[in-house]
Structures are given as structure tokens and as C-alpha cells.
Specification:
The protein is an alpha+beta fold and about 500 residues long. The chain has 15 helices and 23 strands. The strands form 6 sheets. It has a 5-stranded antiparallel sheet with strand order 4-5-12-8-9. A 5-stranded antiparallel sheet has the order 16-15-14-13-17, with helices on both faces. β15 and β16 form a beta hairpin. The structure holds flavin-adenine dinucleotide and FE2/S2 (inorganic) cluster (2 copies). Flavin-adenine dinucleotide (FAD) binds next to β2, α5 and β12.
Length: about 500
Amino acid sequence: MKPAPFAHVRPATVAEVVEALAAGADLDGGAKMLAGGQSLVPLLAMRLAAPSLLVDLNALPSLRGVAADGPDAVRIGALTRHADLLVQPYSVSGADLVAPGATGGALRNENGLTGPGAGAGDMPLLAEAARWIGHTAIRARGTFGGSLAHADPNAEWPAVALACDAELAVAGPSAERTVTAHRFFHGLLQTDLADDELLTSVRLARPRAWAFTELARRHGDFALVLCVVTELDAGWRVVLGGVAGTPVRCPSAEALLDAGERHPAAIAAAVAAAPEAEAFSDLHASAAYRRAMAAELAARALRDLRPGPGAAPVLGTEHVSSAALDPQNRAVTPPSPSASPERAGTLAVTLNVNGRHRAAACEPRHTLADVLREQLGLTGTHLGCEQGVCGACTVLIDGEPVRSCLTFAVQAEGAAITTIEGLAGPDGALHPVQDAFSRCHGLQCGYCTPGFVLTAVHLLATEPAPTRPVIREALSGNLCRCTGYTGIVDAVESAAGSMGGGGAG
Ligand SMILES: Cc1cc2nc3c(=O)[nH]c(=O)nc-3n(C[C@H](O)[C@H](O)[C@H](O)COP(=O)(O)OP(=O)(O)OC[C@H]3O[C@@H](n4cnc5c(N)ncnc54)[C@H](O)[C@@H]3O)c2cc1C
Ligand code: FES
Ligand code: FES
């Protein structure tokens, strides 16, 4: 299915977002905000949501970034991508985070120039949690604020927010307000946000000690159960995700820790007996299994406790995105899309695809994948699930792998798009990754191949000599129905060698 028609507007300021939401409220289907689109676009495609107006937040660079907020807290802009938080010190720059209340005024992150404690915002817990979220292409687009606003109880950020006594800054038609994480999550996909309010930034206390443990069926899946343990100035927090409609704290386990108990078995027993761990059953796991896993994850968290700031983060595969690197390998600011007025109906758009400007006519609801295939004849971009899961539609936008089924064509204007057709040289010579797929039997029917190849091209741009486990993790967001995974991993390893990186075993 495809999304129902909607008008699209890309405001440049928070005030304009609030105005657009107010105007959209009078329309039949109302207005909805679009951040990374990694949860919303599948809902639109399945017509579980059918807003009349989509208010695109992606032209608000002021909401993207991380800054120290006093000595013991960090403030994260709502538009900060999951991938931004994998890298510490943070490479997201140019953000003027709105810091309401006590701190007042604008903060800049450490690549900015000013702000209290700028540069001291590292928080390894964030890097560890981020690497559990989806896959490279999901982390490149999905946002911190979008995840909190979506409030999936199996997601990582809501549990981290609760474990760090988060305070969420919310802007709306009346004065800005701050909501604690404890009050923010109301239930499954339900929050304290009104339809005309947006989340702008979030303040998290920096833990003195922390641990993050998760059980998922496959790397990159939502958690079946997860446990975050933190020691804050205000005391210990033991938070479970995936057991109820919201993340939940376990006060009995926290009381034991506050009293000095550190034995993993004692904390596990407290979690197992806690009413908060009264889990639900679904097709993935029974309540009894979830409860048992919650106790086990709490025990592991206790064994795995790490000191707070200063400890080396556990990094995922994308240490820093290729789009965020200049030739000297220094972090630079990724380009931000520009604001646009409200647009509806059939529009003329110009896309920069494989180095050429291509004109197309499309509606705001048309995905980049559909426009590439149906209007520009670039049928190498394949469609499988149209929900962001299979990776067949992966293209590169400004060097980042992106699901083109979850990106609207109007969002891609002004960006550099690379499809599989753009990889070969002008003389038709295959790209080394394509050549390796051919040599190493990395394809059978070939349906998944363009997505795998582009994901691998990004991996080798960021990590020239990946190990086989790193290759497997990087490709875990791409599915091959012919199950030719061994040949695919062989191909990427071989391409790394022929491109000068060399296989790392
Ligand atoms: C294949 C796949 C795997 C995934 N795996 C995981 C996973 O393992 N863990 C995980 O946590 N997530 C996972 N996700 C979801 C991903 O993290 C999303 O990025 C996230 O849930 C929503 O963030 P977004 O920026 O994409 O928001 P969007 O999809 O753009 O928006 C989601 C909702 O939040 C609202 N919203 C967005 N921003 C704001 C704001 N600033 N203020 C108010 N409302 C706002 C939107 O209106 C919408 O209702 C996965 C997604 C996919 C497709
Ligand atoms: S991820 Fe886009 S079609 Fe499957
Ligand atoms: S080669 Fe057939 S789907 Fe992967």
C-alpha cells in the first residue's frame, strides 16, 4: 500500500512548526510531524495514519546536536540522529540547542563555539544503547526525539530516558513546558504530547555508573526485553523495557542498590518478584519468558556495571558517517535540507541522482523509491517490504545508506543520491564491490543485491578493513531471500582487499 495524499511543509523554526500544526488541526486528517520517518512512514504506507498535512522537521538544524548541560547532564536535540550518538566525542555540529529553564540561552555542542561545559558531554551509555537500534540505514535517519515521541515500549531510548531522570522540553502554542520521563510515557505509543506540541530537546542526567543489557531475536531487532541500570546523584535506577506498555522502574531493586547491595543474584531476585516486571505475552515471547529474561538481564547488568563519563564507549560499525568526513577525515557538518512552503498535489521536483540533475513530477506522498523506479527509470532500486525491513531499496543520500521506501522524494531534493546505476565507472567498469559480488558468488536471483552492494560501499568508505563479524553486523539490515549470506560476506571481504583495505580476518 501507499500513503494517502497529504500536503508537505518544511518549516525553518520551532514557531513555524507550531503554527503549521495549528493550521493542520483544522484539516480533516489533521497534521503529523515527520522526523526520521522510520516509524511514521510505514504507518502512513499501511494507512494506519492518514494526516492531511505532514510537517517535516528536517529543516530545523537547531534541534540537532548534543551539549553538556551543566557538569552532570547532557542535552540532546530532538532531531539528533541515532547514528550521531554512536560517536563520542560527538560529531554533530552547528546545533543551537534550545535550553529552557535554568540553563537558559543557547547551547552549542562541542563543535560549536560556546556553551556551558561544551565538549564535556560524553556519555558512553548513549553510544552503547544506540548500537542496538536497528541497522545502519535506520540509525542514519531515525531521531532521538522521534523515538521518544513514538514511545514504543520495546525501543531503547525511552528506557534510557527513564533511567537518566530525563526532562523533556516541549514547545506548543502556549509557553514551553518541561515533562519528566516518568510522566511523559502514558502507554503503548501514547505520550504526554498534545497534537499541537513538539519535543525540542531532552536533558539527561549523566550516570556515575551504568549498564545496558538487551535481548533481541536478531541484531537490530527491537528488544524483546532490555534492562538499563544507572547510578545517578539522586540514587540508583533499574529500568526494564519490553515488559509493559511503557518502560518501567523497579523500586525494590533500586532500594537494594541504594542500600549497598551489589550481588547480581539479589538484584535479579528483586526484579523477578517486582510487580513492575509483570510482563505481557505476544507471538515473540511468553510473559514467563520475558520475566525470567528481565531478571537475567538485571543480573548481567550488575556484572557489567561501568563507570560513567570517561569510559571508552562501545562503538558500532559506523564510527563516523562518510558524509560527515572531509578528505582529511575530520568531522564536518552534514548538509541540512532547506525550509519549504506548503506543497500539495503534483509538484515539479529536481533530484540530483548519480551526479545528474533529473526532473520529475510527483506528489509529496510518493517515495523516493517509487520516483526513482517509475519516473526516472532507475529500476535497480528494488522494493521488497516497503516497511524499512528488507533493505532492497537502500540508496545512498549524501553518502549515507537510506531506505528509499521510507523517504519521500520531496525530502531528497538538494541531496546527492547514489543508486546502484551510479556505481560503475563511465566506461562501464564495475565498482570493486560489484566486481567482488560477481567473483565470490555473492548473488543468486540478484533481487537483494543493489541494497547489499550500496550498504557495503558505505561500510568500506567508513571502515576500510572490516572483520567478518563487523561485515555481518553492517549487513544485518539487508535480507537475502536466496540466503546467500556466506558469498555476500566473502564478497565484501574480497572487495575490502581489492580496494586496499585488506581483509582483517
Ligand atoms: C527496520 C527497522 C528497525 C528498527 N529497529 C529499531 C530498534 O531496534 N529500536 C528502536 O528503538 N527503534 C527501531 N526502529 C525505529 C526507529 O528507531 C525510529 O527512528 C524511531 O522509532 C522513530 O524516530 P523517527 O525520527 O524515525 O520518527 P518518525 O518516524 O518521523 O516519527 C515517529 C512519531 O513521532 C512523532 N515525532 C517525531 N519527532 C517528533 C518531535 N520532535 N516531537 C513530537 N513528535 C515527534 C511523529 O509525528 C510520529 O508520530 C526501527 C525502524 C525500522 C524501520
Ligand atoms: S526496506 Fe525498503 S523495500 Fe524493504
Ligand atoms: S540473491 Fe536472491 S534475494 Fe538475495
